[in-house]
Structures are given as C-alpha cells and as structure tokens.
Design goal:
Elements lengths: L16 E7 L10 E10 L6 H18 L3 E11 L6 H11 L12 E4 L5 H8 L10 E2 L2 H17 L1
Parallel strand pairs: 2-3, 3-4, 4-5
Antiparallel strand pairs: 1-2
Helix pairs in contact: 1-2
Length: 159
C-alpha cells in the first residue's frame, strides 16, 4: 500500500490588510448579538485585490463560525478600496454560510456595512445598481450600522 504524503498548509494573510473582531457588549433592546468585523489597509484595484478578497472571505466565515452572531457589520472605514469585483465574495460567502437553508420568503441574514470616504465611492458602485442611490445597509457611522443590524437581526430571528 502506498503511503500518502501530507504537507502542512495554512491560509496566507496578505501584507497590507488586517482584521479584528468585536462583539457588541450589550444586546440592546432587540436582545441580539452583533459581530463587527473590521478590515484596515489597502485593497488593490481590480484583480490585484483577489488575494485580499480571499483573506476577507476567510475572516468573515471564521467570525461567523466562531461567534455565532445574530447579525454582522462589515467595518470597511479604514480600508482603502476603489474597485474590484472580488470584494463581492465577502458578501456571497456570508450568504452561503448563513442563508443556505433560507425559505424563499424568509429574510436574509442581516449584514450592515460601515464605510468612510476611503471606500464609500467604490463600495457604492460595487453594491448598487446604476438606477439606485446607496443600499439601505450602507452607513458612514459604525453606531448607525450596528443599530440597523440589531433591528434586522430581530426581524430575522422573529421570522
């Protein structure tokens, strides 16, 4: 019998990007937990950002699996981002992880976004069809994003 060789591997954390997890300390009047995942650094334009998007997807799933929140806020306020479609993968992987058993009329798992001038124009063009303004879950203020996430989490849990 042939012995199969294994090589130890670990995901890469690209240089130029960092992440941190925070949980809301109080559940608010909605009695829910919100995970805030912050990303800071530079997201290179176009396909040059692919490795950073892969890292961000892995971080998001790790946070969801580790902390089992009722909602998530992606805090991009300290992330410089102009364009690159791979960033959509962060939102897609959250949906794949949290919405896989969703019924057709059931609300989606709540995701809010906090952004700054470093990334707001790029995120707006990535997330919004040309005939719309900005999405209802995109905020310039972290507290506003958390309050929105709490409200949507209560709706999601009460469904």
């Amino acid at each position: 019998m042939t012995k199969i060789k294994l090589k130890k591997v670990a995901p890469d954390q690209p240089t130029g990007i960092d992440s941190t997890f925070y949980l809301t300390e109080d559940a608010g009047p909605e009695n829910v937990s919100v995970l805030v995942v912050t990303f800071a650094g530079e997201y290179p334009d176009g396909s040059l950002g692919n490795k950073r998007a892969d890292y961000m997807k892995a971080v998001a799933v790790y946070g969801l699996a580790s902390f089992d929140p009722d909602a998530v806020v992606l805090d991009f306020r300290d992330l410089s981002y102009r364009w690159g479609n791979s960033l959509l993968g962060v939102f897609q992987v959250i949906s794949q992880f949290c919405d896989q058993e969703r019924e057709p009329d059931e609300p989606y798992f709540p995701v809010a976004i906090a952004a700054s001038e470093k990334c707001m124009p790029g995120l707006s063009s990535l997330l919004v069809p040309a005939d719309m303004d900005k999405p209802e879950n995109l905020f310039e203020n972290l507290d506003a994003a958390i309050l929105y996430a709490r409200k949507k989490a209560r709706e999601w849990l009460d469904y």
